[in-house]
Each structure stands twice: as C-alpha cells, then as structure tokens.
Design goal:
The protein contains ten helices and eleven strands. The protein has a seven-stranded mixed beta sheet, sandwiched between helices. A four-stranded mixed beta sheet has the order 5-7-9-10. The longest helix is centred in the middle third of the chain and has 16 residues. The radius of gyration is 19 Å and the shape is globular.
C-alpha cells in the first residue's frame, strides 16, 4: 500500500485501487481552500495513473460532504463566486471526468450542496440507509453548481430536479435509490463490507471495457442515434483486440472464472 500525507484528505493506493477519503469530520468534510488544493493534487495523480482499476471516494466520520465551508465565505465585501467556482470545484470536476477507471462514491452520511453533486458526478453511487442528499443551494440564495443543473434532471427528471433544488428538502438515500439518482443503499452496519465487496468486484472486471462504457454513455447525451451507433462500432472494434475479450470468451467456454488484466 502507498499512503500519501495530506491535511484534509486520506489518500492511498493498493492493489490497483485508489481510496480517497475526505477528512474534515468536525466540519462534515466541507470543502476548505486547503481541501480544494489537495483534492486537485490527488485527482491529477489518479488521472495520470494508468494502473488503477477502481477509485473509491468517501468521507470520514458521520458525513460524506456538507459542500462548501461557508465559514470561509463570510465577508462584507462582494465576492466573485464564479471565479472561485472555476478555480476550485470546476477545475477538479473536469479532472474527475478524465479519470478512466470506474469511480465509486460511497456516501456514508449527509451529502449536501456541492457534496451531493460531487457524488452524483461519480460512476457508481451507493449510500448508507441513514444518508441524505440535500440540494441546499437555494437556502443561501444560490443555484446548484458542480454540474447539478446538468446531471440532476437526467437522473431524476426535470420536475423532481426543480423541486429538489428549489425546496432544498433532504432526500433519503432510499428515495434517491427509488428515483434512480443513485445505484444502491446498504444497511449502516453492513456498509463498509458492502462497499469493499463492490470495489473488489469492479477492480477485477475488464477495466478497459468499463472505461469505454462510461465514456460512451457520457457522449450519448450529445450524439445522435447514428453517431452513437458509429461510436459503439469503433470502440467495439478495439475491444475485440484486447486480452480481456479473449480471456472472457475462453473462460466462458471453459466454464471457469475469468482472470481479467484490465487490458
């Protein structure tokens, strides 16, 4: 295992898995200036690591992430939030989207504001039964950011997305699963074991295929029907030349468990 020392984030890499744990539990892991910088450094490292087969993002303590630390926003002077957004969250999310390995977000508690939307930008989102998602922006006179206005309508539909963001009411993890906003919920007592099982499963899947699945699905929002067919054709051509395709077919015909290498 390789551990890295950061003030606000626990970060380690082991067995081709990167684990990122937001670590300001006394502030429900709200983002500070330091956390923005450290998150940027970690995401750059993860995006540049071609050996990774899975990334886990979670939070320390009783919350996942309460969004921005508003204590750093309190001022009597005008503040250009567009500039701070571009230099912080937007920069980091653009790197997050460049990570080819599947990203699992394990929401271990409340996910509010930017914290909720950072989670939704990941590939597979699971949550504790007790967790809640809160689009809290309107409570302080703001709009959803961190891609919230783009991703929420696509996940839950326009009517629900508008209501969630305008009312800023907590949404239970169970309801989030029911609405298709997240993949699954796990009982609090079983959460850590279930998350580890999920991470191990994904890390042993054919990584290159998974990377292309998520890329194709993201592009589907912009592509026409025919463009998507063409994209699938081109990627499938490459997939047919991989070790993992050959191994998958051989394992199927030989009735054994495949040993994927991620290539």
């Amino acid at each position: 295992m390789t551990n890295h020392n950061y003030e606000t984030i626990n970060y380690s890499v082991e067995n081709h898995v990167a684990r990122i744990e937001l670590n300001r539990p006394d502030k429900l892991n709200a983002f500070s200036k330091t956390m923005h910088v450290e998150f940027f450094q970690i995401l750059k490292s993860v995006a540049a690591n071609d050996d990774l087969r899975c990334v886990l993002l979670t939070g320390a303590g009783r919350g996942f992430c309460a969004g921005q630390d508003l204590g750093e926003r309190k001022t009597d002077q005008p503040m250009d939030l567009g500039d701070t957004l571009e230099k912080g969250y937007n920069t980091n999310l653009r790197i997050l989207k460049k990570i080819r390995a599947p990203i699992i977000c394990a929401v271990n508690g409340v996910a509010a504001g930017a914290g909720a939307n950072i989670a939704l930008n990941c590939d597979i989102v699971v949550a504790k039964d007790s967790a809640k998602f809160i689009q809290s922006f309107s409570q302080v006179g703001l709009i959803p950011d961190c891609n919230g206005t783009w991703i929420l309508p696509k996940l839950v539909g326009l009517a629900r997305a508008k209501a969630l963001t305008m009312l800023a009411e907590p949404l239970s993890a169970q309801k989030a699963e029911e609405w298709g906003m997240i993949y699954a919920t796990y009982a609090d007592d079983d959460f850590e074991d279930k998350v580890n099982q999920l991470v191990n499963t994904i890390a042993n899947r054919p990584t290159l295929a998974l990377a292309n699945i998520k890329e194709l699905m993201e592009k589907s929002y912009q592509n026409t029907y025919n463009e998507q067919l063409d994209a699938e054709r081109d990627v499938q051509r490459l997939m047919g030349l991989t070790h993992d395709f050959k191994e998958g077919v051989n394992a199927f015909t030989e009735k054994r468990k495949p040993n994927f290498k991620g290539s």
